[in-house]
Amino acid sequence: MHDELKNPANGSWAPCVSALDSAGYSRHRWYFFKEGFSPSLVDFAIENAKLRQGSLIVDPFCGSGTVPLQAALKGFRGHGIEVNPFLAFVARTKLIKCSPLAFDAALSKAKSGTQRGAKSPLEGFSTFSRKRGSERWLFNTPVLRAFEGGWLAASRDQGPASDLVKLCLLEAAMDACNAAKDGKCLRYKREWRKLHLGFDDFVEALEAQATHVREDLESGVQPNGGSRVECGDVRKKELPEKFKLCVTSPPYLNSFDYTDVYRPELFLGRFVTSMPQLVGLRLQTLRSHVQVDWPRASEHEYGTRYAESLRLILARRERLWDRRIPEMVKAYFEDVELVLKALRRRASPTASAWIVVSTSAYAGVEIPVDLIIAEIAGACGWYLREVNVLRYLGRLAGQQWKELSDLKDSKPHLRESVVILDAMPRSRGS
Q: Is the pTM of this model over 0.85?
């Protein structure tokens, strides 16, 4: 198996991968998803695959819908699967066809609702609002009530315009939240108490988001209607037909609980309504974190790189910040294997799969996730074309490395890569 890491010196091979690039793309900018990748990566893969119009492109971890939307905008069909119901809603909403007039009419009703306001069911629940004795809370009461009034008004009508307005309301609520997404968690804004975020901040954010949506609806750039997004666990769902291209980025092996990061939107939009439901959703996600008690992984063998990484981590178990990390590593690759097998079953004879992943490190041990996935894919019937480094993510902090490592000359240098797989061997020069 050829698994040499490639990283072109002039940077011409790889497109921009950062989700920050999405802010400049019509419709993609409707809800920022930091964990996503740039639409330009999808364009690059499409061009490389030489697809015919109407070909099916899939993403089993579609997040906020970059792949199905870009497929639809480029004349292809897209099929996305996403376990998080809020993100599946975002992805579906980005595919909506709606006239600017219909959107403005629905928005006007929602604005009237925000003016009236309504008591939110989240008042007094968990950390969503201020309670006696609480030191931190996500939303000030005027923001929650403005959102609730708008949401109830938007919910009285069903249809594309209503969903577009709901998306704007959710974005506005998060802009007026006392905390913001910061990597793996929600972090309270600096001097958030002094900001006194309230009704006016919510309305200003709603207007700003609505302007983006209206501009994109008026631009005439419309998806072709050939893409769909379904909510579910990719490990338990079979794709309905064979695909030509897969572009995807599974959760990284970094112990981020993305369900927790998007907890405010899940509750605000009634995608979950109780903590047991939230825990149930967490248990449906890829086993990439230790925040819930997962089913134990089987003792599979995934090649020499996997075995060596696990051996080193187990040897440093006492230095791990959580003793369940070795089990998480096992479970993660077991889940990845299930996904790769499922994709191989539904791949057309000339299909390719582009999988964006990141290496990770625990107790000073770097796990070469990209190369391990390449080895697993080979055992699942895929042919490895290449592994390309998209960008380096930096090294562990010097003090952290000093505390963790006995090998001062091999500090982990984490990277984000794309593993490119083919359903059949490629001819030389193709």
A: yes
